Amino acid sequence: MDSPLFLPLSLFTLLETRRDFRLVRLAPILVLFVFLSPVCLQDTMSANGYSESVQGLQEAAKLKRAALVGNGHSNGHSNGDSNGATNGHSNGATNGRSNGCSSPTTNTRSSPAERPAIPAQLQFRPRLSTRKFPRDFSKIPKGTDYGQGRDGELNRRLEDARITFLEQDLERILLRAADLKKNIVFTTALIAGDCVIMDVLSRLGLLEKIPVIFIDTFHLFPETIEFLREVEEYYGFKAKYYHAADAETQEEFQEKYGLEFHQGDVGTYDRVCKVEPLQRALKDFSYDCWINGRRRDMGGLRSNLPVFEDTKLNPLAFWTFEDCWSYLRKYEVPYHPLHDIGFSSIGDLHSTKRVDLEKWMTYGGERSGRFQGMTNKDGSAKTECGIHTEIKKDKPSASAQQQPTLQEKQS
């Protein structure tokens, strides 16, 4: 009775008995329907799982976050490890976030050709569905038309040489910063460029020394939180979690601000959920160098970025989105699962949309799905979340003011 074949086979037997051969022909179709309907349903749910309905997305996020609470991630983001390492998210009201987490592995610098394999205990073990998010790069578009035959071979060689140069240059920039600066931090949103920086920092052994700051807006995709946990395990570090100052969990935040807080004043939302938490993090670490993943090809206010920008360091400024993916492919670096279903850039649930694959590698294409239809107070189109437009106006910490800038030391 529990077999999925019971109903169609019973119908087939009944129709055969009555010799209604016109209807008998329908039985195989019913059998196929029984087998395929669960698959079709699952694929439909996968395709529509991130519909544009903010209410539906929020409900999905709430359910998944509730599950994460049981795993010790939310409400303090305790890792439950035997070493008792804290990740800076709990007890923030009293101790200003712990910053004593270091990687259990030791990395040494190596040339690209000699890059060591990641230890077996740190191999990538995805928690997320590999069927829905294969993360084998098959869903990621390529921007270059390499051509055929000799042309294709030459174009690929040139691209390989370019990526090798870029990654060597990135290593030099990061090592130079580590040599010149005392209090470096790295902020990550786990998008493609951030994954490049994370990988290189790990290879250089700098994740042991540089805090990785992660801002939880309480409006992120649940997959972002899960992916960070995977990245922490993969590279063997613990991120420093920051969030709105007056709420320790998403539930507390919603009780205080309501479910529709993000639909109100955009500037207020950015200040409460993004700007203030990051300002607090930068103050906690008395930073004099802030590594971030902004690039010129993102367009907008980022179109003329330098690498060295006072206390900010933009090591990927001259990279392209395609360069980032070429690097990730080259070393099979884990990337955000939502890239596999059409999101070129990932931010908050309510302000992030899919982008057509043909547009991904075009100028400004990566962030074209962010803040669509949203405007700033002055009526201009919103292209930034406020972190870089607001915090860059702040004065550096006292220790940073006493030190020459990276540009000065370079010269």
What characterizes the major β-sheet? 6 strands, mixed
Shape: globular
Mean pLDDT: 75
Structural class comes to mainly alpha
Tally of alpha and pi helices: 14
Described by its quaternary structure, the protein is: single chain
Element-by-element helix/strand order: HHHHHHEHEHEHHEEEHHHH
Number of strands: 6
What are the low-pLDDT stretches, counting only 5+ consecutive residues below 50?
Answer: 1-24, 34-54, 68-122, 393-411
Helix content: 40-55%
* Percentage beta strand: under 5%
The Rg value, from CA coordinates, equals 25 Å
Distance between the termini: 80 Å
Describe the structure.
By secondary structure, this protein is mainly alpha-helical. Helix 1 (6-17) runs antiparallel to helix 3 and helix 7 crosses helix 11. The N and C termini lie far apart (80 Å). Strands 3-2-1-4-6-5 form a 6-stranded mixed sheet. The longest helix has 32 residues, at 149-180. It is built from 14 helices and 6 strands. It has helices at 6-17, 21-24, 26-48, 54-70, 92-95, 149-180, 192-203, 222-235, 250-257, 266-284, 321-331, 387-391, 398-401, 406-410; strands at residues 184-187, 212-215, 240-242, 289-291, 308-309, 312-313. The model is unreliable at 1-24, 34-54, 68-122 and 393-411 (pLDDT under 50).
What is the element layout, followed by pairings?
Layout: H1 6-17, H2 21-24, H3 26-48, H4 54-70, H5 92-95, H6 149-180, E1 184-187, H7 192-203, E2 212-215, H8 222-235, E3 240-242, H9 250-257, H10 266-284, E4 289-291, E5 308-309, E6 312-313, H11 321-331, H12 387-391, H13 398-401, H14 406-410
Helix pairs in contact: 1-3, 7-11
